[in-house]
Write a structure and sequence with these properties.
Radius of gyration: 18 Å
Strand content: 15-25%
Number of strands: 10
Number of helices: 10
Distance between the termini: 16 Å
Structural class: alpha/beta
Strand order of the largest sheet: 1-2-3-4-5-6-7-10
Shape: globular
Oligomer: single chain
């Protein structure tokens, strides 16, 4: 990390260029990722995110966040492929799919992780948005008890993949209650909440950062929801200026984005980052 690059923004954006809606061809995405290493904002970019099925196609050794496409049994093979390719394993991401037994699914992932020797704090478990809040919370308990981390889906190609603000607020609160760091994925290309060209309500990554630090300091759920729903750039930037957002990064570690330039452009336009 460059000593001159602000810690608040360092490694904030994981490069998920190959995922929708970007869908950049893998060779082009790798070339762009490598080219950014020579840019002044290189430290903004964290890991290169790739599915386990595409790891063998990554010919250049990279810090990889590997998305396991199957269940818990896919963790160990994904690690083998990453090691075989000479890559640095930055993280493993896996979604729970057993909606009838989320806690049991989380425990199976934890067992798989324990059996293959990867550090638990490199593993992010995505909990699906389900009506059974109790099941979701018990799964979060299982994740926290195993030392794993949480992953929250904040967007996608369909409206139901964008969680309502009250849901996201409760997820953040649950992570903080369990002292469990989390990352987000999808939908956070921009700093401020807005209605996207797709017609969906997009959360803003700056909103989420401010909401996280305020929730950590004891804000109510209603106050956190209000922060997440603030669409006024001046208001959100003013709120951010009152906080040490680097504290939020202890919990909100990063977000995956198919675009690096959009978050960068917003940080510059809002005066939160200056080009040297």
């Amino acid at each position: 990390m460059s000593p001159t690059f602000p810690a608040t923004w360092s490694g904030l954006v994981d490069d998920a260029a190959i995922f929708p809606p970007g869908d950049v061809p893998l060779p082009d995405a790798i070339d762009a990722h490598l080219a950014r290493r020579d840019e002044w904002y290189a430290d903004l970019v964290g890991s290169f995110v790739v599915t386990d099925t595409k790891v063998p196609e990554v010919r250049t050794p990279l810090p990889l966040a590997v998305v396991v496409s199957g269940g818990a049994g896919g963790v160990e093979p994904a690690l083998r492929l990453t090691e075989r390719g000479g890559h640095q394993l930055s993280g493993v991401e896996i979604a729970l799919r057993d909606l009838d037994d989320l806690p049991g699914n989380a425990r199976r992932v934890a067992t798989a992780v324990d059996g293959c020797g990867v550090a638990p704090d490199r593993v992010y478990v995505e909990l699906p948005h389900v009506p059974d809040t109790g099941s979701w919370l018990r799964a979060a308990d299982a994740v926290a008890e195993s030392g794993l981390r949480l992953k929250f889906r904040t967007g996608g190609l369909e409206a139901h993949l964008f969680p309502a603000s009250h849901a996201l607020a409760r997820w953040i609160d649950a992570a903080l209650d369990r002292e469990t760091p989390f990352k987000c994925t999808a939908g956070l290309h921009n700093a401020i909440r807005h209605t996207g060209d797709d017609g969906f309500e997009h959360h803003g990554f700056l909103n989420v950062l401010v909401a996280t630090v305020r929730a950590f300091d004891g804000a109510t759920t209603e106050e956190v929801v209000a922060l997440l729903e603030d669409r006024d750039p001046d208001s959100v930037v003013a709120a951010a200026a009152k906080e040490d957002l680097a504290r939020a990064r202890r919990w909100f570690t990063s977000f995956g984005s198919c675009s690096v330039t959009e978050p960068l452009d917003d940080l510059l336009a809002l005066g939160l980052l200056e080009k040297p």
